[in-house]
Design goal:
The structure is a single chain. By secondary structure, this protein is of the alpha+beta class. The protein is built from five helices and five strands. The chain has one domain. A hairpin with a 5-residue loop joins strand 3 and strand 4. Helix 3 packs across helix 5. It is globular. The N terminus is likely disordered.
């Protein structure tokens, strides 16, 4: 589980926390192409670690797109820069086109969902399928 938390205490009053079940469902649909790509490449082996890595990159892209259209505090700009550095250092070269697709997907198919995503965890559900639980989500007003 990634414990990357958005430092939202100072501007929390401007946001509404969403039902995290809804955020989880929406984000899982958003990362569906990543999941399909990894399942195709896996040839039957477990992909939970790779899926978690790719989900973290998609999580960054989601929040980056939100930040591009939302005024953010100077403190949050520092966090976004750190995440941008992490993204650039960890982006798999073989998935460059897929990551571009994910950014475009957020801007078009998921543009109505204007909330930051906070902590999340990747796990296998009761059916043995990869799933995501968003622990924090903050709606931009």
């Amino acid at each position: 589980m990634h414990k990357i938390s958005i430092p939202h205490e100072q501007f929390l009053q401007h946001f509404e926390v969403l039902a995290n079940k809804e955020a989880s469902k929406i984000f899982l649909e958003y990362v569906r192409p990543l999941k399909a790509f990894l399942l195709e490449e896996s040839k039957g082996r477990s992909i939970i670690i790779e899926f978690e890595r790719y989900v973290l990159l998609a999580w960054y892209l989601w929040n980056k797109v939100i930040a591009e259209t939302t005024p953010v505090s100077d403190e949050y700009k520092v966090v976004l820069q750190a995440l941008n550095d992490y993204y650039n250092d960890n982006k798999p070269p073989e998935a460059e086109a897929l990551m571009q697709l994910m950014e475009e997907r957020k801007k078009t198919e998921f543009k109505l969902y204007k909330y930051y995503l906070g902590r999340f965890k990747v796990y296998k559900n009761r059916k043995g399928e990869l799933d995501i639980h968003i622990e924090e989500s903050i709606l931009v007003q």
